[in-house]
Amino acid sequence: MRRAAGIGLHDGVGADVRVGFQLPWKGSVHMTLTTLARLALGRTASARGIACLGLALVLASAAASAQQSAPARASDKPLFTVLNPTGIAPPIDLKPMAERPASLDGKTVYLVDITFNGGDLLLRQMQQWMAANLPDVKTEFRVKKGGYGTDDPELWREIQAAGGLMVMAIGH
Amino acid sequence: MAELESNYKVPAVGIIIDALHDLVRDKAVEDGMPALRLAFTPTPVGGKTPVELAAYVAGDDPVSKRPLMPEIVGHLTRPLSDEERKTGQFTRTRKRLIGPDTAENLQQYFDDRFWTDQLPIVLPTEERVAEMLRHTRHRPDEIVGQIGVCPWVPCSREEWQYTVETVAINAVMAGAKPEYFPAILALAAAQTNPRASSTSSMTAMALFNGPIVTELNMNSGTGALGPYNNAGALVGRSWALLGGNAIGGSVPGHTYMGVQGNPMGFIPAVFAENVTGLPKGWNPFHVQKGFKPDDSVVSTFYGCQSQNTMMVLRDEDWQWVLQRFIGGLGPPNRGSKLLLIDPAVTGPFLRYGFDTKEKLIEWVKQNVTTPKYHYWLDQEVINYKLAPARAGQEPYATWLKLPDDAPIPFLSDVNVVVVGGSGNIRWSVNECGYSNRSVRVDEWR
User: What is the pLDDT of residues B290-308, one digit of tens each?
Assistant: First the structure.
């Protein structure tokens, strides 16, 4: 039997005390303590016997309660609300990308070196590959002015005026 | 590249090493072009021979796993998607309050987002932050500054703003005492980021001068740059946490790219100048920068990568030693040096004629050199100085034309601070450069 509801003690231990049990094959069963005692101890169960049974049931109930709430107490740690330590991100303006041509044939691809970590050597290899594999595509190697983070509007205008496209290396 | 596509209508592809994949995608979002078309090579490109690079070109993009060159052609010719045509603005919101949850779970939550230094924090409850805020007259929502992943501002990546409250939250997390808060705010107002994202793993330092040193019992003696002073350690930790969190977290691969990291940046050194140890004629650092002696000032230094120490100079060879010791610390691209001189070794410097800090600084700038041949072979110099030199920027344009054995006086930013407890005749040099930012603490009380 598994304990279901708690045992409520009314006026002393006796006939008025009702206990409830969960029987797997039957469901909830409720009966008076007197009836239970007579079932457990026999039809001649004395008042003392009923009281002992009642006390045992109370102790068993207390033990069951202790077992069921032990996990709940372990998780009853204090809870905290804290403030977010991060700063304020700026809004982002989405920018549209440039439309692509259907093909590179007849176009000029600018290979732009930003003078960082050997990007020029990589672009030269790319230029050789394109010469061998894309004979109808012209390439122009350019070194961007200034440091790698510096803008070079003059170069961008040249590429734009030529209707060109760009491959830039090597990013950092 | 985003500007080139949107303003000049030039179709473009960026080539980057695959080790920087996350970073460059983040940058594309920040620049308003999340779908920027990128291709990747194996890492590294620098140092590879033409034959090795030809193999890269003939091989696959290590990120997409597709042949590199056809992919580049595809990026230049594939029609735009609806996503790639999008315009408009979006904002990134954040929850002001986090929880309620257990202390353990909150620590884990903060650790997972790299909002901590992976050490236990003091939870920034509203009560604790309110107590911290009581130590300044500035409003909690007042903007203190803005920084990005760069050591300085303006930054080539986006800059995030931080308020007085943001600074207070990070100060609580660090375990700072509320009476430290004006000093922490002043340091925050210097807008120098000790959690800067450089592949060099550079970090920062902060120097306090003036009455604030006594007020907070800061250290200018034994162990001054180490974890031996409460104010120094906790102001430093507050500053470091703020540097990472002000930009949303110092996240490896995204907002922190230091290839190896730097123990100097774990908790950046925050210390005081030993004014009682200053020789006559040597002014305190803040006075050199135009402040009054009784101004309480914090000054920041960035680009800090390494530090070395030596013992007292000898009359026989002090010039050779100074040139070798100072010039040999780090590659010649780095034009900054910070001399940390213990009071016990100032005597020889005075004997050699350096009766002011300025004379010593000038001597170092003129006499610590490297041969032109070796200067222009340094990869950092090539990365940062070669293009400006070819574009005519001085002094690099002139240096490019010198004979191979000509000495290049590559130091442009040299500073001297007296600090130490005189337990031995030692002094140090590091590569920190003055940020040109010194802030009065009193403005933040």
Answer: 999 999 999 999 999 999 9
Together in a domain, B264 and B129: yes
A78 CB-near residues (< 8 Å, 6+ apart): B102, B103
Query: Which residues in chain A have their CB less than 8 angstroms from residue B33's CB?
Result: 94-95, 97
Domain span holding position A125: 108-169
Instruction: Mark whether B277 and B345 lie in a shared domain.
Output: no
pLDDT digits (tens, 9 = 90+) for B321-370: 999 999 999 898 889 999 999 999 999 999 999 999 999 999 999 999 99
Specify whether A64 is located in the same domain as A121.
Answer: no
Bridge-based pairing state of the strands A2-3 and A18-23: antiparallel
| Cross-chain residue pair B248–A118, CB shorter than 8 Å | no
Listed in sequence order, the residues at least 6 apart from B421 whose beta carbon sits closer than 8 Å to its beta carbon are: B221, B222, B223, B224, B342
Show which of residues 13-52 on chain A sit within 8 Å of chain B, judged by CB atoms: none
Residues B321, B414: one domain? yes
Q: Do B69 and A81 touch (CB under 8 A)?
A: no
Does residue A40 register a pLDDT over 80?
no
CB < 8 Å to B77, chain A: 100-104
Same domain, B76 and B112: no
pLDDT at A73: 46
Task: Establish if A157 touches chain B: CB-CB under 8 angstroms.
Answer: yes
pLDDT at A5: 32
Give the closest of B17, B91, B163 to A170, CB-based: B17
pLDDT of residue A171 exceeding 90: no
- Whether residue B302 is contained in a domain is answered as no
Mutation site, A80, A112, A155, interface B, largest B CB count within 10 A: A80
pLDDT in tens, B396-424: 999 999 999 999 999 999 999 999 999 99
Instruction: Kindly report the length of chain A.
Output: 172
Predicted local distance difference test score (pLDDT) of residue B391? 87
Contact B50 A121 (CB under 8 A): yes
- Domain containing residue B6: 2-85
Residue A34 belongs to some domain of the structure:
yes
Confidence of residue A17 (pLDDT cuts 50, 70, 90): very low
Q: How many structural domains does chain A have?
A: 2
Are B418 and B277 a contacting pair, CB within 8 Å?
yes
Residues in chain B: 445
